[in-house]
Structure formats: C-alpha cells, structure tokens
What does this fold into?
Amino acid sequence: MKLSINKSRSLWWTISVVIILAGIISMVISWQQPNIHAPLRPGLDFIGGTRLQFVRDCTKAGNCDKPIDINAVREVAKAQGLADSSIQLISENGAENGVLIRTKDLTVDQRTKLQNALSEEIGVFDPQKNQIDSVGPTLGKELLRSGILALIVSFIGITIYMSFRFQLDYAVFAIVALFHDILITVGAFSLLGLVAGIEVDSLFIVALLTITGFSVNDTVVIYDRIRETIKINPEHPIAEIVDDAVNQTLTRSINTTLTVLLTLTSIFLFGGETLRYFALALIIGFTMGAYSSIFIASTLLTWWRERDQSQVLESVEPIDTSASSQDS
It folds into this structure.
C-alpha cells in the first residue's frame, strides 16, 4: 500500500497543532500554580534540595541478609512528610544494600530523624559510606541555563549543516520539525507534572538533546531520497516525489523507531526511578520524531516548493498572440 501523505497534510498539521496547543495551555496553567510557578514542575536539580545516600553496614551479622524493600523506604519517607521524594536503590558489592533519596531542603534534625527511621526499618548504616549533600538553587539555574544554551547551539549547528548539505528551505523545515518534537515532549511533561506530579531534572535536558539528534537523523534520510529523486526526475510534481521518497524510506523509519522504542520501554518498566522518566521523555520524543519526519517536515517542504513554483508561474507574462494573428 502506497502512503499519500500530501493528500491529507492538513490533517497531519491539525493533529500537531492541537497537541502543541494542549501542551502550551498546560504550561500556562502550570506557571500559574503557586507550588510550581514554572512551565514544568522542576526537580531538585533546578530548585535545590537535599540528597541523602545511606548504605548498610554488611560487616554486622545479619544486617544485609534481607534485600531492601523500596516500598518500605517510601513508607518511611511518607511518614516523615517526604512522600514526594525521589527514592532509588543503589548497589554495593553487587547487591542493593543502599538507598539514594533526593528531597526538599531538610534541617539537621529532619535528616537525623529520617536516617534513624530508615535504620530501624532496613538495617544499620555504615557512617563512612553515608553521604548528605545540598543542591542550591544557584546550581539549578546554571544547569537550566546550560541546558537551554546546548539546545540553541544544537539547533544552530543543525541549521548550518542542513543548509550546506541540502538547501535553506530543507534546513528551515527540519528545524520546524525539531521544534515540533521538543514542544510536544515538553508539553507532555508539563501535563504529567500537573496530573501526576512528575518533576523534570537535568536528565530531561539530556533527553531533549537526544531527541534532537534522533529526529533530524530520520529527516535527513527522507530528504536525501527527495533530493536524489528530484535530480533523476526533475519534471515530476514535488508532491509525487515526496510521497515516493517517504514510501521508500517508510519501512526503515518504522523498524528503526520500533527497535529503539522496545529498548526504551524496557528501561521505563525495569530501569528504576532515576531512568524511568528519562526513558519516557525519549519514548515520546522519538515517536514524535518519526511522525514529524514523515508527516511534518516532508509535507511542509512540499507545500513550500508548490507555493514557490506557483509564484514563478504567475510572474511569467502570457504571450500576446494577437500581433502574430494580424500579421498572418
């Protein structure tokens, strides 16, 4: 079956606009929430907080016989008023004998109470391996600034690369597709922050940069095929050329995306709390990257080339045949 993407391009654009608008509305609502006051619910990396690492002392008899129950750790944190903390198990000598907790700013008394409560629940900790760090909001602002700068630099680099390899209009629509993927991913996490309390951290910025690279790679493959077909059949309509290019690369795009999504889904399900939402961001972004490469970047290029061609035709003056008829 041949896919004619340009016949329904208004539908693809409408779907994308609706999803992006929903994300923007969610970001506006999130900004107005007094407990968030940001487009996304920020994690400790951006607003500051306390990081605590406790490792059990396995030199004590029977202290490490039972594995740590992460649900029991969460119950202890909840009892201490820290239900929204990020908790994960850490490995020590090949076994998960420690916990890593990232939470809001804690006083010395709060830290002590939490440590004592956890020690009673899961075992005695080794004081030499325990770590307590504080992340200030200044570091968080620096992380955010660096992440945004990295995204801007990547966009500029991609634009320059695409302009040299193809043409300027190719580059512009590739960047439009990238913005499409980033906006939808950010909007989805804004909505998740409002509904499920999911926070974003520095790994989210890494996910956005990864999405940028994956999305443009898929677009380049389609654009390469479009350019080759135009050289071979320059007289063919651009819509037909783009449809053929998309159909020729469709199987590759689907197989590549599905292979990556299977791996990311495994990480999301079994990778632990730290990697779960990083994997979720990649799942959303990679899915949208495949969608935008096929249905957004390609159809926008078609629309622009058709518009450019129609303007050229309109600028050509019709030939006046009256004089020649009179001569005859």
Q: What stands out?
A: The chain has ten helices and four strands. The radius of gyration is 27 Å. The mean pLDDT is 85. The CA atoms of residues 321 and 327 lie 10 Å apart.
